[in-house]
UniProtKB/TrEMBL annotation:
InterPro entries: Methyltransf_11, SAM-dependent_MTases_sf
CDD domains: AdoMet_MTases
Annotated protein name in UniProt: Methyltransferase-like protein 27
GO MF entries: S-adenosylmethionine-dependent methyltransferase activity
Pfam families per the UniProt record, alphabetical: Methyltransf_11
Domain Methyltransferase type: 71-164
Domain of life: Eukaryota
Lineage: Eukaryota, Metazoa, Chordata, Craniata, Vertebrata
Length: 228
């Protein structure tokens, strides 16, 4: 019952403690311990990325949503799939590095398949070119997932399919965002995909760092994989 009384300060303290995690094992341990309260904490932060990403995909996807297969990378507790389900999508495969997060997600019954995988360590455990939509929401940020993972996301997508990605635009994530955008543009120059939409959002989520107040900004990227 105590979990229902969590304040923004409680959530900030918890997230800031994760920034002290330096090894991969420490990061996984943090997310395993966070799984039980993750959804509630995201509600406290007014975290909008899952709904913004889902709406971005929905506004451009013209195929059969019920039959479309969606790969949700760094799926966490399934916040993105919950939003996409409301918009008519119904077939989800999830990947996450935290087994506790996957256990929580499994209980939702939203996903047809769930796989444990540390992003950035080897290839994703799915078949290349087999997904109509690939989404990664929240994980592309400093200290989390390496920028190079986006090439794997593209490989997993069917020709003509969509890749939706998000990142933060706050001060702490400036260098990562710049590196990410260089990679996205290089992949476009390489003929792998084409940019469909870039949507910058001011009120992304409530700030948690000690030198930021109010809300921090974020951005949603949508790319379409080109025909082989």
């Amino acid at each position: 019952m105590a979990a229902t009384t969590k304040t923004l300060e409680n959530v900030k303290a918890n997230i800031l403690s994760a920034h002290k995690s330096t090894t991969l094992a420490e990061k996984v341990d943090f997310y395993n311990s966070w799984a039980e309260n993750y959804d509630q904490d995201m509600a406290v932060l007014e975290y909008r990325a899952p709904s913004l990403a889902a709406n971005c995909v929905s506004s451009h996807f013209s195929g059969d949503r019920g039959a479309a297969v969606v790969l949700d990378v760094a799926c966490g507790t399934g916040l993105v799939a919950k939003q996409m389900k409301k918009l008519g999508f119904g077939h989800f495969v999830g990947i996450d590095g935290s087994e506790a997060m996957l256990d929580s997600t499994r209980e939702s019954g939203l996903y047809q398949d769930l796989k444990q995988c540390m992003l950035g360590e080897g290839q994703l455990p799915v078949q290349c070119g087999s997904f109509d939509v690939v989404v990664i929401v929240g994980a592309l940020s400093d200290g989390q997932v390496p920028v190079g993972v986006v090439r794997q996301l593209c490989k997993c997508t069917k020709p003509g399919g969509y890749v939706c990605m998000t990142t933060r635009r706050n001060q702490d994530n400036v260098e990562y965002k710049e590196a990410l955008e260089r990679e996205l543009k290089q992949m476009e120059a390489d003929g792998l995909w084409t940019c469909v939409e870039v949507s910058e959002v001011e009120d992304w989520e409530r700030a948690v760092s000690e030198h930021e107040d109010g809300y921090i900004p974020g951005v949603v990227y949508l790319y379409k994989r080109l025909q082989l």
